[in-house]
Write a structure and sequence with these properties.
By secondary structure, chain A is an all-alpha fold. Chain A contains eleven helices and two strands; from the N terminus they run ααββααααααααα. Chain A has one domain (2-258). In chain A, 73% of the residues lie in helices and 2% in strands. Chain A is globular. In chain B, 74% of the residues lie in helices and 0% in strands. Chain B has helices at residues 3-26, 28-52, 64-85, 91-96, 100-105, 110-115, 121-137, 147-178, 184-192, 204-213, 216-228, 233-260. In chain B, helix 2 (28-52) runs parallel beside helix 7 (121-137), helix 3 (64-85) packs across helix 8 and helix 3 (64-85) packs across helix 11 (216-228). The relative contact order of chain B is 0.13. Classes of the chains: A mainly alpha, B mainly alpha. At the A-B interface, helix 2 and helix 8 of A face helix 2 and helix 9 of B.
């Protein structure tokens, strides 16, 4: 365990050292946040509720979406693809460390910094713009939301790892990963809440793991979902974690059998 | 630049474009994934806008067709800029690895050589659906379309592309000058997200910044306003003057950067 903690610490130092890169990464997040915040604000000038959301809830959705984007979607898929395709993966296979755990440690360090930055940005926005922000009233929400957000993070990490493992069979897996990353964000509700979509489409989406990454966690935070529903979200996330985790492990094992360390 | 030199540069562009297309076709699965991703980004965002208008009639005073017009105009300018100036995205690497030295000794403009070093046909392929959707949204704008508005739209589109070119030239100049400022172009890409919506949705300081400081609003919102007939002659004159000034300033900055270049890795 201590070696993964060491990787986490080193990676944390690395992310903090490259401050210009971090700043530029955050510009993207801030631009998306501002665009969606003002877009929804302008809609609420004419309506008290939209798609069942009062203004405070919708703007909180946008702000929390920014936080969850920083927590959930800062994966390591591109690095995994690069390491498999270039043969650099061999360096890790001969070490007494599990590659998945190593990647998770690196990813958590990145998420720590990005989440802290997102909290700072959201706080500034609330202070400067006087943005209405929903604070959960129920103690259950304060317990359940962090667990659900952690499950979301792990679920995306495994999903992206699964898609990135395609690199064992083709050197062109960058395209599918790019496609996957964009698709997931739209289907997860990371730009707009899924409630705005027609009901049939929502019902179809709820059968996939994607709404459990952003949409349902924010639903729980906003206390739109009662405690029973929040527990159901948690259980479904757990089930998806098991399914995706097993799929990722199986594909990884088969991929390793196919791995030829080309370029390594 | 005389006609013979223009023709020579066009031939070079065609050659580079043919090589880029060949590379993209040989990268079948990868190219398909990137193309599909770009289409997903376009269609899903558009689909969400359609879905939102099931719950509201107007956004910042604009109807669905008007908001679609802004969004599609943003995509049109963004895609054209990506197709024409894609090479700038690799500017820092070209300079850092010393390849820029080769650009300088070739008998063509080094700026052109850098900007056109890659022609992304995947972006070009996304142009067709944008044009098709524009053909749906355009005629539905209030008051209908007249030749004057269409002409103004075309002029302001060209103006927006000129501003995009100027910003890309600035970025290329920064890469040549510093070799250190990584991912400058990505700041531009990130800020471009703000152009997906009309500049009117933003609160005053941001709207001011997008009009005068980082003129994304002038680039992508003004053409749509021209087509809607809501852009005054004064703002039209401002947009045209701004593009001219930015073009002149970016070329000046580029020349200064080239003069200061000291061949990084050779």
């Amino acid at each position: 365990m201590s070696k993964y903690l060491y990787v986490y610490t080193l990676s944390l130092q690395n992310v903090l050292q490259r401050r210009a890169s971090l700043l530029m990464d955050r510009v993207g997040g801030i631009a998306t946040l501002l665009a969606l915040y003002f877009f929804w604000s302008s809609i609420f000038k004419d309506s008290a509720t939209v798609a069942g959301y009062p203004k405070a809830q919708m703007l909180t959705y946008v702000l929390m979406m920014s936080l969850l984007r920083s927590l959930v979607f800062t994966g390591r898929g591109w690095e995994v693809v690069g390491e498999i395709s270039s043969g650099r993966l061999s360096n890790y296979l001969i070490r007494p460390i599990r590659y998945l755990g190593y990647c998770l440690s690196l990813d958590l360090a990145q998420k720590t910094v990005h989440c802290a930055a997102a909290v700072f940005e959201i706080s500034i926005l609330i202070l400067v713009l006087g943005a209405p922000f929903h604070i959960p009233q129920s103690p259950q929400t304060w317990v359940l939301f962090p667990i659900i957000a952690t499950f979301s993070t792990l679920l995306f990490f495994l999903l992206e790892f699964l898609v990135a493992s395609l690199a064992f069979w083709t050197s062109e897996s960058g395209g599918p990963l790019f496609c996957f990353d964009l698709l997931v964000q739209f289907l997860a509700g990371a730009f707009f809440p899924l409630d705005v979509l027609p009901r049939a489409l929502q019902a179809a989406l709820y059968m996939t793991p994607f709404p459990y990454l952003v949409f349902f966690p924010i639903d729980v935070y906003l206390e739109r979902a009662p405690t029973e529903m929040a527990l159901k979200v948690l259980a479904t996330q757990g089930a998806w974690l098991v399914v995706v985790g097993m799929a990722a492990a199986t594909v990884w094992r088969r991929g390793l059998r196919n791995y030829a360390a080309e370029g390594g | 630049m005389n006609v013979a030199r223009l023709r020579q540069h066009f031939k070079i562009w065609l050659r580079i474009a043919a090589m880029s297309l060949s590379a993209q076709l040989s990268y079948g699965l990868g190219s398909f994934g990137f193309l599909l991703g770009k289409l997903i980004r376009l269609f899903f965002f558009f689909a969400y806008l359609l879905a939102i208008f099931r719950h509201t009639d107007r956004v910042a005073g604009y109807s669905l067709h008007e908001i679609a017009l802004f969004f599609l105009t943003f995509n049109l300018i963004d895609i054209v800029a990506m197709v024409l100036f894609r090479g700038v995205y690799a500017a820092r690497r070209v300079v850092e690895e010393g390849d820029f030295d080769y650009h300088l000794i070739q008998p063509c403009s080094p700026l052109f050589r850098m900007a056109a070093s890659n022609v992304d046909f995947l972006d070009l392929a996304t142009l067709a659906p944008v044009l098709a959707l524009l053909a749906w949204a355009g005629p539905a704008v209030p008051g209908g379309l007249d030749p004057w508005r269409i002409g103004l739209y075309a002029l302001l589109l060209a103006n927006g592309i000129a501003i995009a070119l100027a910003l890309h030239v600035f970025v290329a100049g920064v890469a040549v000058r510093t070799q250190e400022l990584e991912n400058t172009i990505w700041i531009y890409r990130d800020l471009m997200f703000l152009g997906k919506f009309p500049v009117d949705v933003y609160a005053w300081p941001l709207r001011w910044a997008l009009t005068f400081l980082v003129p994304i609003g002038v680039m992508v919102s003004f053409p749509a306003k021209g087509l809607l007939g809501t852009l005054s002659p004064a703002w039209t004159a401002y947009a045209l003057t701004l593009a001219s000034l930015l073009m002149a300033a970016s070329v000046w900055f580029w020349k200064k950067s080239i003069a200061a270049y000291t061949s990084v890795s050779s």
